[in-house]
Amino acid sequence: MNTRSTLVLTFLAGLVMIIAAVGTRKLLTLTLALGGLLGALLLPLTSAGGYLEPAALGIALAMPALGVVVVDGWGGQLFLAPLAISGLAAYATAWFAGDQGQPMVIAVTYALALAMILGTLVAALCSVQRSGAAVAVISVAVATVLDAAVFHSHAIGGTRRLPPAVTHPIRLGEYQVDADVVIYYALLLVLVGCVLTALVLRDTRFAAMLRAGASRSEAAELRGVDVTATRFAAYLLASLLAGLGGCAIAAYSGRVSPDRFSVGQSLLLVALVLLVGRRLVIAGLAAGAVAGAVPALMSHYNPISGYRPEDLDLAVGGLLLVLVVGRELAGALPFVGSSSGSAPRSLSSKRRLLRMSSPSMRIRSSRPTLPPDETSRLA
After folding, report:
1. Sign of CA dihedral 208, 214, 216, 218
2. Nearest-angstrom CA–CA distance, 292 and 270
3. 86 CB contacts (<8 Å, ≥6 apart)?
């Protein structure tokens, strides 16, 4: 058997093992994930290496988008300001590394600590709320305060620049790797770790308790689920992911501006996650890629006549509106979503109520009845 046949048989055996492990339903998702990872790994080595900056921004924004999947998707909350925590981490990284002259590792550590402190405060306010509207108001209020007090302040706000994390190319034998490529691969490695963490947590008791509290919090509490504590932990995890995304943007681009972390950008990221599927891990990756890469590609690399950043907001908002309205209309129609030979749930429940209210459905007495011979004897 030659080497080519051995490689083919090895590939087929590995494919069969993957299908047996994940099932045919998840095979498409796994294929897309592996294809995306392979494309991200080979991007700096191809002729499309000039698109490295949009790809890095997409990787950075995918981290807070995964936090949206955890809090909004699994937890059922309506947290609308994930980039507020990312912005605080980015500005803290720029301030510690630029103004204070700290090494990038120390600056990122301090920035993540501040992001976790803010995340703890947000979790304390939002995890006790039972109304999604209250969570939405609190999150937008936090984002507005940070935008005015930090991102646009004269002391630490505005457009800030910081020294690059890697200043000199790295030599690997006969090869030389540029600094931006090194940072890109470091961000990709962090994103892979975040995705694996989300995939592991998706099938654990933690995610199950989050979903139970999202659907019926009172019933979950009766079954012994601490809904408040579970949501608190979810907010802390989302804050860590958002902080990592902010540090990644600051470390790669070397420039921090308030427009990247505005309330509108947060709403765009949340809308993208909701549009793809708020409980899916792949939705966080897709939302980060669109929110990070598409504006940079449209504005700098492939400019389109008349393109504005608001056009992406309009497209995403319109698609989300059509999706929501379409679902409502589909739910209002009597036979939409019913299979052949079976009635919808609403009609079946109505028929069951009619049968229960018919005269033939009498309430049977709990008093035991006597046999015929016993009845004649008593007579």
Report:
1. positive
2. 13
3. 64, 115, 242, 243, 245, 246, 249, 261
Higher-pLDDT residue of 176, 21: 176
Contact present, 78 and 133 (Cβ < 8 Å): yes
Angle (CA) 22 196 65, round 5°: 115
State the alpha helices, DSSP H only, in the chain: 3-22, 27-42, 52-68, 82-94, 104-126, 132-146, 179-202, 205-215, 217-222, 227-253, 263-276, 281-296, 309-332, 345-357, 372-378
For 216, half-sphere exposure in the C-beta direction (CA atoms, 13 angstrom radius) is: 5
CB 171 within 8 A of CB 178: no
Q: Is the per-residue pLDDT at 117 higher than 90?
A: yes
- Which one-letter DSSP state was computed for residue 368? P
pLDDT classification of 26: cutoffs 50, 70, 90 = low
Q: Scanning the structure block, which residue is given the tokens 């408040």?
A: 228
Rounded Cα distance between 374 and 365, Å, is: 19
How far from 94 is each of 88, 170, 254, CA to CA, in Å?
10, 24, 8
Contact 296, 53 (CB under 8 A): yes
Q: pTM score, two decimals?
A: 0.78
pLDDT of residue 99: 83
Looking at residue 321, its amino acid is: L
